[in-house]
Amino acid sequence: MARHESADADCIEEENKIFGAIKAGANGYLLKKDSPDRILDAILRLLNGEAIMNGIIASKVMEYFKQLADAEPKLEEYNLTEREKEILEKLIRGLGYKQIASDCGIARETLNTHMKSIYRKLNVHSRAEVAARFGAHISK
Fold first, then answer.
1. Sequence ranges of the chain with CATH classification 1.10.10.10
2. CATH code for the part of the protein at 75-137
3. CB 88 within 8 A of CB 118
4. What is the pTM of this model?
C-alpha cells in the first residue's frame, strides 16, 4: 500500500471514531495531541454543559453535515407539477386526504390519482416516508 493510501485509511478510521463517539452520546472530542491545559479546560466546560471540540474536529463535523445536506433529495429533481407540490405540502403539514381535496377544490378520487403520481415520482410507499424524506423541504 502506498504511503498516501495508508494516510487516507488512517484519516477515515479517525473520522469513524469521532463520529462513532458523537453518535454514542459524547459531548465532544479531543485529540491526544491537545495540551493538558486544554484537556482540563474542556473538563470544566463539560461540567458547565458545553460541547467540546478542537478546531480540527469542528471542521470535520461541519463538513460531515454539509455533505449530508448536499446529499438530501431535491424536490426540483422529481418533476412534480404545481398541483402535486401543493398537495405534497398539505400532506407533509399533516392534513387529511379529505381536507386536502377540499382545500384544492378537487374530488377525493382526483386526489388519489395525484397521490399515486406523487408516490411514483418520489419513489415512496407511504405518507410517513414522504414526510421523513421531504418534510425539510416544505415550509410549515
1. 75-137
2. 1.10.10.10
3. yes
4. 0.51
